[in-house]
């Protein structure tokens, strides 16, 4: 066992930290307040190689390991989770899914541009009545010979109005249940593709979350990912990796809040000494540091298993379940350490607290992670 990061991993971590502090931090409060998507910053993330980190260089990716991806996600999420969720969806759902299961033509046509961040991708599984119960897809993709006729609505789609390429999960044969579901690559310009309402959210307010409507949309057969009926398994397999990204996001939110609380506790004085010297605060910091370290180890273990090409579905569910709880607990305590200052925007921790909540919901709620984990244990 080796807990040491490589030179390359340390360099990625440092580059992500620099970018987050120099490019994301200055405007983050304003973007959160005005629900402004960090388009310019995400463009720069593409230039720096953060949008297709694990993609093979032959498809313009960074050829990095998943451990490096976790390190970068943590640093970026310490500051701006609206940027990091776009990064996570593009890297681990869209790029990874296409690279693993797409045809050579699909990789040439879509992956090469997604991996550089030239275009953004979105992952369209959730529906108004199919969130956790993902097999209950109402979006239909009727087989019409050389194309699918797609109709339906998708909800809460990250990068909904900013993406150019959408991976859409839809039911082709209801009789076959989840074996009758397909995953289709849909271009934004497709006739019948309609961007619906933008969601106003508690957290990750800069993230571009929309509903989408598909009205008699014709999607060519060559845009199907994998064999006929593979769509649900595609979504599940892809989400296993996605959950590592969201776990790392939760870790970043927690460690960002902890770093701010630590700094503040050494500056603020009460009852004649720095508040960090009061046991009430020191013990909070000790709990935060311990829980964050545990979450980090779970994230890195899941990433390592994926890099070793071993089964990582349980590990990624555990990492997400635990890290998202740590994100909630740590951010609430970080606000408490800041007292009244924690309740105002300028000190950042209230935003981190609001951003933390979504990590217990998207890419599988905490309850879904417990289903994944318990089924693994009990099988
Ligand atoms: N990894 C691989 N395969 C899996 C899997 C996993 N974690 N979980 C299920 N599967 C496979 C099963 O092996 C089975 O395949 P076969 O039929 O080939 O054997 C198939 O999927 C169906 O499995 P189940 O019978 O267990 O299905 P189920 O309906 O009982 O439950 C579930 C499955 C785990 C609850 C699943 O529905 C689920 O994960 N739901 C949550 C959906 C989710 O995470 N949505 C997130 C939306 S995307 C998002 O948030 C992105 C964003 O924008 C940030």
UniProtKB/TrEMBL annotation:
PROSITE patterns cross-referenced by the UniProt entry: ACYL_COA_DH_1, ACYL_COA_DH_2
Record field: transmembrane: none
Needed cofactors: FAD
Keywords: FAD, Flavoprotein, Oxidoreductase
EC numbers on record: 1.3.8.10
InterPro entries: Acyl-CoA_DH_CS, Acyl-CoA_Oxase/DH_mid-dom, Acyl-CoA_Oxase/DH_mid-dom_sf, AcylCo_DH-like_C, AcylCo_DH/oxidase_C, AcylCoA_DH/ox_N, AcylCoA_DH/ox_N_sf, AcylCoA_DH/oxidase_NM_dom_sf
Enzyme class: oxidoreductase
Family, as annotated: Belongs to the acyl-CoA dehydrogenase family.
Record protein name field: Cyclohex-1-ene-1-carbonyl-CoA dehydrogenase
Organism: Marivirga tractuosa (strain ATCC 23168 / DSM 4126 / NBRC 15989 / NCIMB 1408 / VKM B-1430 / H-43) (Microscilla tractuosa)
